[in-house]
Amino acid sequence: MRVVIADDAALIREGVALLLADHGVEVAAQLADADALMASVGDHHPDVALVDIRMPPTHTDEGLRAAAQIRAEHPGTAVLVLSQHLEPRYALRLIEENPAKVGYLLKERVGRVEQLLDAIRRVSSGECVIDRTIVDELINRSRQPDPLSELTPREREILALIAEGRSNQGICHALWLSPKTVESHIRSVLSKLDIPAAAQDNRRVLAVLAHLRH
Amino acid sequence: MSSRAAPVPQAQVSVLRDPVLVLPLAVGAGLAVGWEGLHNGISGGRVAVDLSLCWGFVAASLVALQRSRWRRPRLLLAVAGLALLAADLEWFNAPGLWTLGLALEWVWLAVIVQLVLTFPDGRPWSWLANATIVAGYLAAAVGGLASVLVSVDHRDALSILASQSATDTVARARAGLGFAVLLSTLALIGWRLVSLRGATWRAQAPLLVGAALALPLMAVTLAQLTLTNQDSAVNTIARALTGLIPLGFLAGIAWSRLRRTQANDLVVDLRSSGEVTLRDRLARTLGDPTLELAYRLSDGRYVDESGAAAVVPDRPGRAVTMLTARDEIVAALVHDPALLDEPGLVESVRATAGLVLENERLAAEVRAQLAQVRASRARLVVATDEERRRIERDLHDGAQQRLVAVCVALGTAAGRAQGPTRQAFLSAQDDLEQAIAELRQLARGIHPTLLREEGLDAALDGLAGRTPVPVRVEGSIGVRLAPAVELAAYFVACEALTNVVKHAHANAATVHVAHVGGVLSLSVTDDGDGGAHSAIGGGLAGLRDRVEALDGTLRAENDPAGGTTICAEIPCAS
Questions:
Q1: Helices (H), B272-400
Q2: Structure pTM?
Q3: For residue range A35-55, what is the model confidence (pLDDT) as tens digits?
Q4: Most B-contacting residue of A18, A54, A84 (CB-CB within 10 A), to test interface
Q5: Nearest residue on chain B to A214, judged by CA atoms?
Q6: What is the ipTM of this complex?
Q7: Which positions in chain A touch B439 (Cβ < 8 Å)?
């Protein structure tokens, strides 16, 4: 596994590099801004780019824009955006276009090496990863006529896991359920959210987005 | 000679300064001339016209005594009256007087031309007016002298080249030139009447209109003389009509007297003050739409009625009259200089408006202070917002980054440690993550990043999303507004929703937002028990200060059927 790290805070950049090196991840480059990041991704073709959302020059959403650019120009590289913002809107911006090989983690997660390694592995294998805290915030969103209110607690739990980017296998594992049970729950969720069966769409992602956007 | 010459100018000056002396002179001389005229076959009508004109001109000049700036027109009126009488010396048979009368025959008309074309300040209106005046005097004086030299009349004391044809020629030439002078004068009067405005027009129009009515017939008379050298009844009528000039003069004075009475009524008008401002009422009373009223503050600055800074100009074309109350300047009237032609008028205003002005000045002073306070309050809000933003940035880029760095270091250490040490590191990480989460909440409360970067719509959406009660957001702004406006609206929504959650026992709330006509309006309505309203004394009171500092309003309404609406309106040029 090869990664590049882009963060204008050297302390964090180097700390994360050290942490990942301890766990056998190759850190191909460390960058301080988006331009350097783009060049480096072009040079190294890493499996994953870890990108801080706030970088010079404006310290606003450079990371998100760099992520979009990497995904357009280097589809082989997954992007994991690290953010201080709890606002779901930023995460939605990241995954709306194409919810694959991409992730959004709160920044403090980088200290949790298991969580970080898990996220890196999952985005590089094509999954979409969203920080648990943000998913909670979205799931807990109170709504007016709420299609989610028709979901049973178990179905909501499963939808939350789908939103985190888990596969059926992952959900079975997390909830100690049989694959058959999980599949039937998911079918129920999809029909309650009124998502039609169509081969060309990723219905699981549509379910998550429909519910996030609502 | 020098000892004798000296008293003459003094006498002139004293007549000038004290024109009352002209009256007995005019009356005595007029009676003598009239008596002689009637005796020598001059028609009674003509005598009556000439005497009335003479006395009318002189009387008008005396009535104008009070008008200090009209000294020159006053003098010219008296001179015109006396010159008219001098022309009638022709009615005497004594050669000396007859000759003088002939020489001065048309001087009175030249004086009237000068009076009109230099009215009211004694200076010719223009170079053309000046030329017309000079031509008038040339026609009268040179023509008069020439007539005397060539006259065939036996009463002529100075006849040197007596010749009937020369007499005719001189008379026609003189009348022709006089005709041209009158045409030019009439044209100048017309132009003057059209171009004058406001108080200036009012002060001068009556006399000018009188002249405009009187002089055409005189021009006809002169034209007739030019063509036929025959005097006729038209001459008498034309002379009679020139009486309109002193009449117009008097009418102008009467007009301003009337308006002074109006000024005295002003004090009543001022007390029954309605929607009309003091300036408007003064402008109406003084008849000067350009009038400006500047109040003098105790620190010497001038402000208008709204409290905005005003300039008291020191430039030509504007006159300034200071208004005082209790020997202290309270206001300055900036007005058309023509108002100075009616000193009694401004004086009346000064006398009647003094006390009201003092009150208005105090009100203007308060308004000026209020404007200052509002401006400084608005600056404080902007400065506070800047400070909030800086603190939020420092938290993000400083404290939070360092805490994350420590978290990473702890993670590395935990990965290399074993047993209880590793557990201690992981537990420290838990605490640290909690601290970072709290810091994040704190930063968002100080200055929300989403609002700053994405605008009010996104921030309200985010706010609605994380409020524990279902919140629907209606409407949108679509554009970015001034940061202080966005922040104030956002904080209002935040505080209102917090109150809904804490106090209202509501099942749902609606945030409505709109940006119409330069005003941002935001309302938060809940379906609770009205508890949010009673909570307005808390956080919303501080927000009311913030909203009002931006010239906005914040109010809370309880629906009798239950529920509360908090409504903020903030003006903003997007």
A1: 278-286, 343-394
A2: 0.56
A3: 999 999 999 999 999 999 988
A4: A84
A5: B465
A6: 0.70
A7: none
